[in-house]
Amino acid sequence: MTAPTCTELIQQLQRQQASLAGFSGYAFRETDLPAVLNEAVRVCAEGLDVPMCKICAYREREHDLLVVAGHGWADGIVGHVTSPADLTAPQGRTYVTGEPIIIDNLHAAPDFVFPAFYQQHKIVSVVNVRIKSHDETPYGVLEIDSPEPRRFNQHDVDFLTGFANVLAEAVVTRRRAEAMAAVLEEKQIFAEELKHRVRNNLQLVNGMLLSHLSTQTSSPQERQSIGAISRRIMVMAEVYDQLLGTGLGRTIDFGTYLTSLCNSLPGLQPSEHNDHQISVVCQPEPLLAGLDTVTALGMVVAELVANSFEHAGSLERPLAITILLHSAEDQQAILRVHDNGPGFIEAAGSKRHGVGLVRRLVQQVRGTAELNCDDGTTWTIRFPTAATMQTLA
Contact, 213 vs 220, CB < 8 A? Predict the structure, then answer.
């Protein structure tokens, strides 16, 4: 075979560099590993002007190299044919030693035992390079094959090595993605199971409290206290529904949680309040908040809504409760709870209407609470967002 001229060699190297660059971009865009392997063997064969190319992947249990991708081979080779991962075969020796192997003429290479499919395809010349890996076990071998005698050189080896390096990165990336997907799936299953268990346990405790109310003679004060405890338990249940539903994260969307909580609050009120016409309107913005903040402010909303329900009977008009949530300046957020009820005057240090609990919960999340009773009752609560809380911690 006539040696290429200097100009032809330069043009060949330019084509190879272009094909390697194009394949690199493809390999890291494509998420399907078999597709990446198939494209690699096609581009390698075209780049070196050979009819055949293949990728052999190492199988640890069998200690062999399985052809997992091929270009130009007959049916029945890819996915079926193997070679020993030892020094006897060309690809096995490259895999074991890590050194590229160039064989211009298989008939003049008595050191090797060639697999039967080499003879079937009349292979004469081959080049092997190892597909390395960041872990202890290399992925396999990249090989080009020709039924015509070829004199391959170091440029050809460098071209194949570049492909092998890109393939190694692609394999590692896909393995990590698969491992992460498996972990996330397992985590999601665990979260769903835990969510049901936590919610069931909280509902069981709540049912015990309600059973006590219905079977035991209790004073109005005791009934009110047990009702408050019941509400707080169900607030916790809503928190766990939202938290575990998003995969056990440290932060959740306070707006989504608040909407779910508001939908359940009317059902948590004493039955005597059901005769009065009451509407609860919740208008939250999406807002990321920490679990502690969501839990505390969820209890605040439950307490304030319960207070509004408690005084609904004194109104001659329907009771309207509005709950707003939005972000503010300086990484702060505002939670506003308003009703058109009669309002009340807060005495200093008062614990009436759960005011003491509300203020303690707001202080717990480093927030402030303002009460206005000029037109019904309006609580305006300012608190740090998730980013601010992380800075303060």
Answer: no
Answer yes or no: do 269 and 369 share one domain: yes
Query: How many domains are contained in the chain?
Result: 2
Residue type, 126: V
- Neighbouring C-alpha atoms within 13 Å toward the C-beta of 112: 23
Q: Are residues 263 and 151 in the same domain?
A: no
Please indicate, yes or no, if residue 239 is contained in any of the structural domains: no
Task: State how far Cα 328 lies from the chain centre.
Answer: 29
Q: Are residues 164 and 280 in the same domain?
A: no
Q: Give the length of the chain.
A: 393
| Predicted TM-score (pTM) of this structure | 0.50
Name which of 77, 87, 82, 81 is nearest 109 in CA terms. Answer: 87
What is the per-residue pLDDT for 208? 66
In a domain, 1, yes or no: no
Same domain, 164 and 257: no
Task: Answer whether residue 213 is part of any domain.
Answer: no
Contact 85, 79 (CB under 8 A): no
Same domain? For 125 and 272 the reply is no
Q: How far is CA 70 from the centre of its chain?
A: 34
Question: Does residue 348 surpass a pLDDT of 60?
Answer: no
Distance from the first to the final alpha carbon of the chain: 73
Which residues span the domain enclosing 275?
A: 251-393
Comparing C-alpha atoms, which of 103, 86, 105 is closest to residue 94? 86
Helix residue spans in the chain (DSSP H): 6-29, 33-47, 90-97, 116-120, 154-215, 220-245, 254-264, 291-310, 355-364, 386-392
pLDDT: is 351 or 42 the higher one?
A: 42
* SS3 at position 322: strand
Q: Could you report the per-residue pLDDT of 161-215, keeping only the tens digit for each?
A: 988 988 988 888 877 777 777 777 777 676 666 666 666 666 666 666 666 666 6
Distances (CA, A) of 64 to 55, 85, 88, 187: 13, 5, 12, 35
Express each pLDDT in 259-295 by its tens digit: 988 887 776 565 555 556 788 899 999 998 887 888 8
Last residue of a domain, one of 178, 209, 228: 178
Token readout for 378 is 């309006």
Q: What is the distance between the alpha carbons of residues 45 and 70, in angstroms, rounded to a whole number?
A: 10
In a domain, 232, yes or no: no
